[in-house]
TrEMBL record:
<feature type="region of interest" description="Disordered">
    <location>
        <begin position="185"/>
        <end position="204"/>
    </location>
</feature>
<dbReference type="InterPro" id="IPR023696">
    <property type="entry name" value="Ureohydrolase_dom_sf"/>
</dbReference>
<keyword id="KW-0539">Nucleus</keyword>
<keyword id="KW-0804">Transcription</keyword>
<dbReference type="InterPro" id="IPR037138">
    <property type="entry name" value="His_deacetylse_dom_sf"/>
</dbReference>
<keyword id="KW-0378">Hydrolase</keyword>
<feature type="domain" description="Histone deacetylase">
    <location>
        <begin position="63"/>
        <end position="116"/>
    </location>
</feature>
<comment type="similarity">
    <text>Belongs to the histone deacetylase family.</text>
</comment>
<dbReference type="Pfam" id="PF00850">
    <property type="entry name" value="Hist_deacetyl"/>
</dbReference>
<keyword id="KW-0156">Chromatin regulator</keyword>
<dbReference type="InterPro" id="IPR023801">
    <property type="entry name" value="His_deacetylse_dom"/>
</dbReference>
<keyword id="KW-0678">Repressor</keyword>
<keyword id="KW-0805">Transcription regulation</keyword>
<dbReference type="GO" id="GO:0005634">
    <property type="term" value="C:nucleus"/>
</dbReference>
<dbReference type="GO" id="GO:0016787">
    <property type="term" value="F:hydrolase activity"/>
</dbReference>
<dbReference type="GO" id="GO:0006325">
    <property type="term" value="P:chromatin organization"/>
</dbReference>
<protein>
    <recommendedName>
        <fullName>Histone deacetylase domain-containing protein</fullName>
    </recommendedName>
</protein>
Amino acid sequence: LKKVCYYYDGDIGNYYYGQGHPMKPHRICMTHNLLLNYGLYRKMEIYRPHKATAEEMTKYHNSLSGDRLGCFNLTVKGHAKCVEVVKTFNLPLLMLGGGGYTICNVARCWTYETAVALDCEIPNELPYNDYFEYFGPDFKLHISPSNMTNQNTPEYMEKIKQHLFENLRMLPHATGIQIQAIPEDAVHEDSGDEDGEDPDKRISIRASDKWIANDMTVSVEIEYTRGGRY
């Protein structure tokens, strides 16, 4: 299982086999979608067959705008874009939710991405429920991005993209290995009680081999008998 992560410090990360992308703060949806569409398709060419979660490019919800600990500026729709892209690969998909420190926005994101996964249209107006007051003051499904400045310039984005492709170029393309049935062992365990076998039928060679005695054992027993030990 390969997981792609974003981190701020460019000196941290396991390159090549563990891809990491040094992103500056205040990432917006346009920046996110650029890396998503350029990077993920290329990864699928390298890692195929690729087994990963639907949250391939944004695993955790603390990248959403307004998160208490996150410094990115993604909307719910921008975060769910990764689900739409991964679905286009027509591969078995497993969606896992996790992370995020603003509970109401995490619930919004889970709801919308579940709808995207199921190809369902849901309204922006939230229905009344026991936790309705948590989603005020607008009581909407989608959130608006803040007015923070995007520090990821086009030149910096192009540098990341080229660095990403260069890392992937270092890896050989994964070959598909067909799953084959494991052959049975040559020696089988006893399938039944030999005492219950039909005495009128010839026993198998494997069963008859069990009756062969060691010559040394037989000679020792004979000597014991002659010596009056029995």
